[in-house]
Amino acid sequence: MNNYLIENNIVAIEGLDTRALVAHVRTSGAMNCIISSDNLDVDNLKAQLAKVPSMDGLELASTVSTKEIYELGDTSSKIKVSVLDFGVKQHILQCLVDRGAHVRVHPAKTDFATLKAFNPTGYFLSNGPGDPAPMDYAVKTIKAILEERKPLFGICLGHQLLALANDIPTFKMHHGHRGLNHPVKNVITGRSEITTQNHGFGVNPDAVKAHANVEISHVNLNDDSIEGIRLKDRPAFSVQYHPEATPGPHDSRYLFDDFIALMKTN
């Protein structure tokens, strides 16, 4: 890792066995790294790297969330979704708009009263970065949403927060799920789908299995981790992966259809 190359402002490295690097991460776990194109002092770089905080316990969602409320979609639609933005991806919102929803996107720390003021037919909890465990503000809001018993859909960080709102703990994974080729089984339908994933935290499988009011809806076929849950007594569900997946795979887009159907029938 001693040679560095800059072309068109893209930093690259050479002389590195990338397969060995992947094997090291899989054995030792996810870790921070540093790449420099001008500072070649290894000890100095190590000192800089040591200052980078651990992701464990790091709350980042509120720092990347929108600062202002904004709306998308047909304002005359009967399907209205209050979105809690923890770092939402644009195409997730587009998938809702494409299905006729009028969405209002709120900052991460928005309280329940403000979300409810939109008079939504459903609520959406977005994806986002960081550790969900320190996000007490979001868990409090989600518990209030659940008391209203309107449809609720969460993706990735939203999935983890829904679990926390039901007293299911989360944990930092040894190494996360990254990329677009993860096989997941929908245990409700028995069908499998190829999914796109990008997360380093998960929900505790033993706590999910022991919970009287939460059932597993999806599992990862590589490591049996929990990929989806749903509540038994209200129309709330979530998945760990990204069903909007642009440019693909599109196997999981049915989840947006399921959410729209819930809002039409509840």
Report on this model:
It contains nine helices and twelve strands. With 266 residues, it is α/β, with parallel strands linked by helices. The protein has two domains: 3-50, no CATH class; 61-265, 3-Layer(aba) Sandwich (Rossmann fold), CATH 3.40.50. The protein has a ten-stranded mixed sheet, with helices on both faces. Strands 1-2 form a two-stranded antiparallel sheet. A hairpin with a 5-residue loop joins strand 8 (170-186) and strand 9 (192-203).
List the keywords.
single chain; 266 residues; alpha/beta; Rossmann fold; 10-stranded mixed sheet; 9 helices; 12 strands; disordered N terminus
Tell me the strand percentage band: 25-35%
How does the overall form come out from the CA principal axes? globular
Sheet bearing the most strands, described? 10 strands, mixed
Poorly predicted residue ranges: 1-7
Number of strands: 12
- Identify the CATH homologous superfamily of the largest domain: Class I glutamine amidotransferase (GATase) domain
CATH domain fold name of the largest domain = Rossmann fold
Termini gap:
57 Å
Number of helices: 9
**What is the number of independent domains?**
2
> Widest sheet: strand order?
3-5-4-6-7-12-11-10-8-9
Rg estimate, integer Å = 20 Å
Mean pLDDT: 92
Helix-strand topology string: EEHHHEEHEHEHEHEEHEEEH
Quickly name the level 1 CATH class of the largest domain: Alpha Beta
**Which architecture of the largest domain does the CATH hierarchy give at level 2?**
3-Layer(aba) Sandwich
Return the structural class.
Answer: alpha/beta
Fraction of residues in H or I helices: 25-40%
